[in-house]
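Today's session is about reading a structure prediction critically. Students often jump straight to the picture, but the first step is always the sequence itself: look for stretches that repeat, for charged clusters, for runs of hydrophobic residues. Only then move on to the predicted structure, which in these notes is written as discrete structure tokens rather than atom positions. Here is the chain we will use throughout the hour.
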Amino acid sequence: MEIKKLQGAIEAILFASGDAVSVDRIAEALEIDLTTAGKMLENLADRYREERGGIRIVRLEDGYQMCTDPEYAGAVRSALEIRRNMPLTQAALEVLAVVAYNQPVSKAFVEQVRGVDCSAVIGGLVSKGLLEERGRLELPGRPLLYGTTSDFLRCLGISALSELPQPRKGQTPEEAEGETEGIPTQREEEAG
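Below is the predicted structure for this chain, in token form.
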């Protein structure tokens, strides 16, 4: 298949999916090698970025997703009558931080770190699509394990967990938290 047709096929796959699609899956579907698929996706993402239109292609861990440019979030929200997202509470941000840096983790682990019950907060974050179940721990009662989602990465405006700030050695979570206070997440910025 010629390059222009391959790029068109990749665009069609990303548009039809609505979610992130792994490079492996695209390479397999188009019968091309992973390196070629990765380069074509990066070239396509660059093209969309250079055109400065309303659509972007973002990398989320080992996949790519077509999404709207955050600059036009207000217009999209208004046209589609999407209500504003409520900002995350301090408890929700703390739970996200614990999960993001230690995943996959059980609810009991999060509660041990925070020192309070986190059932409602974890349930709320799962319903918002920021956390997901990642299997069960091989212990009595087989507790659920949780991890962050691609929506979490998209909301922070990062493509991989490795881009999260690294806590310094000897720094307590409270000290690390103090350094990030006042830094709004992308979702908060979109909410205005």
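Discussion point for the tutorial: The beta strands are 21-22, 55-60, 63-68, 105-106, 131-136, 144-148.
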